[in-house]
């Protein structure tokens, strides 16, 4: 029988890699100007525009919620995170996803355990609550219980695989805290909408209460948006982090 407990690994982080992108502020400009200039909009963008004028135009689009020009860009991310994070991702249906399959490959024994900085206790009613740090005892019981449970579940998974049970059946015992990986592709408009819901920010027009683990992913994606499309990002920030 396989030795499961020694091979099980634990993490408290997520990773987000920008695999490829075709995304710039110019994509927004030519897409918006085609409505008045037709095919000349590409030529106008290629010759360059004053940055202040471009920033003002993008801010106008963002402010008045002319959203479609922000869809002419693509970003593909490789995300490594616990499966429960991906289940929240699937609620964003404008995105495209391809996730590793537990039917076709043996899943690696890597599990999420909340780190010491993770707030554990929810206070308040639904819709008006906050999370506060747990006690040392609460952190201890979470850490020990998660590790013990994941080790036992992976041992059961390996036991079934060793007995010849199909991977798609054996995975039944694995918790949603096991890590998975996926490619996630979106446009800038979809990403801004995702960020408005999956980050908590004091400048946001509308409150959001994301689970911390998906917020960790969102924060890394936000950094890529800011670098790829600085004028778009500034306009989104300046208009209350509301997607157009």
UniProtKB/TrEMBL annotation:
It catalyses: dUMP + (6R)-5,10-methylene-5,6,7,8-tetrahydrofolate + NADPH + H(+) = dTMP + (6S)-5,6,7,8-tetrahydrofolate + NADP(+). It comes from the Bacteria. Its cofactor is FAD. The active site is at 198 (involved in ionization of n3 of dump, leading to its activation). InterPro entries: Thymidylate_synthase_ThyX, Thymidylate_synthase_ThyX_sf. Its EC number is 2.1.1.148. The keyword Flavoprotein applies. This is Flavin-dependent thymidylate synthase.
């Amino acid at each position: 029988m396989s030795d499961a407990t020694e091979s099980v690994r634990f993490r408290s982080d997520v990773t987000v890699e920008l695999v490829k992108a075709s995304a710039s502020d110019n994509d927004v400009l030519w897409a918006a100007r085609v409505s008045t200039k037709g095919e000349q909009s590409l030529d106008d963008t290629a010759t360059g525009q004053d940055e202040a004028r471009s920033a003002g135009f993008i801010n106008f689009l963002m402010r008045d919620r002319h959203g479609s020009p922000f869809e002419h860009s693509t970003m593909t991310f490789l995300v490594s995170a616990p499966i429960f994070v991906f289940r929240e991702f699937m609620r964003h249906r404008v995105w495209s996803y391809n996730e590793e399959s537990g039917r076709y490959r043996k899943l690696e024994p890597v599990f999420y355990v909340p780190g010491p900085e993770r707030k554990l206790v929810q206070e308040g009613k639904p819709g008006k609550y906050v999370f506060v740090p747990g006690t040392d005892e609460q952190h201890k019981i979470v850490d020990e219980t998660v590790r013990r449970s994941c080790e036992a579940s992976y041992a059961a998974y390996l036991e079934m695989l060793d007995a010849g049970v199909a991977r798609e059946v054996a995975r039944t015992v694995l918790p949603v805290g096991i890590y998975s990986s996926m490619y996630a592709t979106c446009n800038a408009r979809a990403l801004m909408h995702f960020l408005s819901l999956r980050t908590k920010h004091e400048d946001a027009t509308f409150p959001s209460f994301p689970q911390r683990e998906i917020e960790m992913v969102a924060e890394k994606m936000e950094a890529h948006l800011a670098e790829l499309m600085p004028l778009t990002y500034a306009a989104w920030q300046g208009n209350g982090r509301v997607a157009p």
